[in-house]
Specification:
globular; Amidohydro-rel; Metal_Hydrolase; 4-stranded mixed β-sheet; Amidohydrolase-related domain-containing protein
Length: 269
């Protein structure tokens, strides 16, 4: 079984990526399982809230329902093609603060974990309300044996250490740090917290090799692609006209850029 631990569906900037197309591309590239979240959640990104780009104006409740139904439909489709898909609830602080709590989200949709993106959305850990619901979701994930996937980067906002307090406080909760950015911080988290793993999305073989060379077990480096964000970067960004996108094109891209039987990805699952 080959698993892609970092996949998305939904609205990403100016393109909507259908779950049917993404799951088809993965399955027909030799992938049998994935963990995914909806980038439609980025309609509440910091740049959009600041009015720096156009976005569909949705209330908190409308966006929550849109994403819930989108994910449920994706899971239903996955079953029809015998593809194992695990959904992660992309936690948007503004939605939680509006009164749509973690318990409601997890009750209304069969999520298998959470996605946190402290660069796309503001996670103000100096705010008591934010601290309280962050503690709630880490506690919930630990008790229910659910995964938490956290975007990381090289800035202060998305440092791999950003949620260190909560990771330390919940040692039985599995936390997946994405992208291998800021390798020193990633290595610190891996060596200090056995409940932490990382994924290889947007990471180079040199970055992976550096961790392994410093004693990190390969089994703690999960294979992930961030598909179809990668497709958007290479085929849509900067184009005056959005090119046609379909399942066959996505499959071809995935096979060529992410996975084949000879790919390096297969060696560090």
């Amino acid at each position: 079984m080959m698993t892609d631990y970092h996949v998305h569906i939904g609205q990403w900037n100016d393109v909507y990526f259908k779950a049917e197309d993404i799951f088809y591309a993965l399955k027909n590239s030799g992938i049998s399982e994935c963990w995914f979240s909806s980038t439609t959640s980025c309609l509440y990104s910091k740049t959009i809230v600041a009015g720096k780009c156009d976005a569909e104006a949705l209330s908190h409740e409308e966006l929550y329902l849109k994403i819930r139904d989108e994910v449920k439909s994706a899971l239903e489709y996955a079953q029809t093609i015998d593809f194992k898909a695990h959904a992660l609830y992309w936690v948007v602080p503004d939605i939680v603060k509006s009164g749509i709590g973690i318990e409601r989200a997890m009750t209304e949709c069969p999520y298998d974990g959470f996605k946190l993106h402290p660069r796309a959305q503001e996670w103000n850990l100096d705010d008591p309300v934010t601290v309280n619901f962050t503690e709630e979701l880490f506690s919930y994930a630990e008790k229910q044996n659910l995964r938490i996937l956290i975007h990381t980067g090289a800035s202060g906002d998305d440092s791999p250490k950003r949620f260190e307090y909560f990771i330390k406080a919940h040692p039985n909760g599995l936390v997946q740090l994405a992208h291998l950015k800021d390798l020193d911080a990633q290595e610190y988290m891996l060596k200090n917290f056995p409940n932490v793993v990382v994924d290889s999305s947007f990471a180079s073989e040199n970055e992976i090799g550096a961790l392994v060379g410093d004693g990190i077990e390969r089994k703690r480096i999960l294979w992930g692609t961030d598909m179809p964000v990668t497709y958007w970067w290479y085929n849509v960004l900067g184009k005056e006209k959005i090119p046609s996108i379909g399942k066959e094109l996505l499959t071809e891209f995935y096979k060529r850029n992410h996975y084949s039987n000879e790919s390096v990805g297969a060696s560090y699952v």
